[in-house]
Amino acid sequence: MCNLTAVRSKICGITRVEDAQAAADAGADAIGLVFYRPSPRAVDIHMARRIIAALPPFVTTVGLFVNHSRCEIGEILDAVPLDVLQFHGDESPSQCEGHGRPFIKALRMQPGQDIGALAKTYGSAAGILLDTYVAGVAGGTGQAFDWAAIPLLEKPLILAGGLTPSNVADAIRQVRPFAVDVSGGVEASKGIKDHESVKAFVQAVRAA
């Protein structure tokens, strides 16, 4: 876990230019673009480029992948200027490496799994994202997990899973993560962000 006082915020599952602009206006540090086609929050290359082009400077763009091939990732990176890659599938450390970008590995808090030991195998990761385990779902469940079960990690911790404007301050006080990641908790419907909720979320992070 991280002792830094300034916790970063990431608004994930952005599918529209206006939602990306609202996140940036609210002061979010990063936005997430989902390239996993089965997700209701997926974007194609054309929309991803439009979204990124509309962002102001210093907003980090993160691309989310789930068991994509190296070729598929390369095609997207050739077309979309992403800053960071986020892997939500069963990718091995070697599959996450070698793309010319820092990467975050998402791990799900599954009962009986030693998350601390698993996280150590991703030694080249820029950070570890912890999300809720739901069978058959790669992420974006909208469900929180037991924050007290989080082990001490050597890498910066990004906390996800069921965060909302009303509980993120408590999460930060308990966990002291490097960053928090929200998607469904600030949506009007899947893939469509509620701008007031985005603003309230970022304000709550900054005030925590």
From TrEMBL:
Q: Which GO terms describe its molecular function?
A: phosphoribosylanthranilate isomerase activity
Tell me which residues make up the N-(5'phosphoribosyl) anthranilate isomerase (PRAI) domain: 10-204
Q: Which InterPro entries match?
A: Aldolase_TIM, PRAI_dom, RibuloseP-bd_barrel, TrpF_fam
UniProt superkingdom: Bacteria
What is the enzyme's class at the highest EC level? isomerase
Instruction: Return the Gene3D superfamilies for the record.
Output: Aldolase class I
Q: Which UniProt keywords apply?
A: Amino-acid biosynthesis, Aromatic amino acid biosynthesis, Isomerase, Tryptophan biosynthesis
Q: Which terms does the UniProt entry file under GO BP?
A: L-tryptophan biosynthetic process
Could you tell me what reaction this enzyme catalyses? N-(5-phospho-beta-D-ribosyl)anthranilate = 1-(2-carboxyphenylamino)-1-deoxy-D-ribulose 5-phosphate
Pathway(s) it belongs to: Amino-acid biosynthesis; L-tryptophan biosynthesis; L-tryptophan from chorismate: step 3/5
Query: What EC numbers are recorded for this enzyme?
Result: 5.3.1.24
Q: Which NCBIfam families match?
A: PRK01222.1-4 (NF002298), PRK01222.1-6 (NF002299)
Q: Which family does it belong to?
A: Belongs to the TrpF family.
Identification of the protein by name: N-(5'-phosphoribosyl)anthranilate isomerase
* Gene expressing this chain: trpF
